[in-house]
Amino acid sequence: MTDYKDSLAYLRGALAKSTSGTIMLEMVLADTHDERLALVERAVDWSVQELVKTRHVKQKMTEDGLSIEIVTFMKAMGFDAAHDTQYGGHCDIIVEAKGDFLWIAEAKIHKDYDWLLGGFEQLDRRYTTGLPGQDAGEMLIYCFGQRADLVLAEYQTRLEAARKDVNFDGTINGGLFRRSTHVHVGTGRNFRVRHTIVPLHFDPTK
């Protein structure tokens, strides 16, 4: 009989060129909540990349439509993902896994900054439980305008001003995501949020 470790090494080798396949395998093998969280975020990143590749046909899509596409990508990777689940309200994206793991994302098209801040409040105060294994979530910002990086930076500035309890990781000051931590009002435990902006601007000159 083939040794388990040999079989696993073979699978990892066979999937080495498939990011989505590798994520699927590692999620099955994940033993801790932090490992599952890292893999959910990798899956979101891969899904966002696929979404952005075809942004030219996404210009009139709604928040729900974009979120459903991400859920579809994640389901294809084997995640127990869903859209519009009723956990404290209509959650945009959820992922559940063994060990009572629950990750929730709130998704907003960038219309104005108050709209985005309202989305954060929904994620924080309405949808998330803050329980062990359920103490991390995500803000997904769909940006159809130019310079998504500047939009994200301004969003961070405004959220810090509106919520003095939200502490951003000072080492992450570039790129298309930020990380923050605050005390969850329901449990008193630290709650982690990744804030990711999705650059969907498309306005070719030719």
Instruction: Output mean pLDDT.
Output: 92
- Secondary structure: helix percent: 40-55%
Order of helices and strands: HHHHEEEEEHEHEEE
The major beta sheet can be summarized as:
7 strands, mixed
Rg for CA atoms:
18 Å
Secondary structural class: alpha+beta
- Report, as a whole number of angstroms, the end-to-end distance: 60 Å
How many independent structural domains? 1
Q: Please count the beta strands (DSSP E, at least 2 residues each).
A: 9
What is the approximate shape? Answer: globular
Notes on the structure:
This protein has one domain (4-199). It contains six helices and nine strands. It has a seven-stranded mixed β-sheet with strand order 1-4-5-6-9-8-7, with helices on both faces. A two-stranded antiparallel ribbon has the order 2-3. It starts with a helix and ends in a 7-residue tail after the last strand. It is globular. The chain is 42% helix and 23% strand. The chain has 206 residues and is of the alpha+beta class.
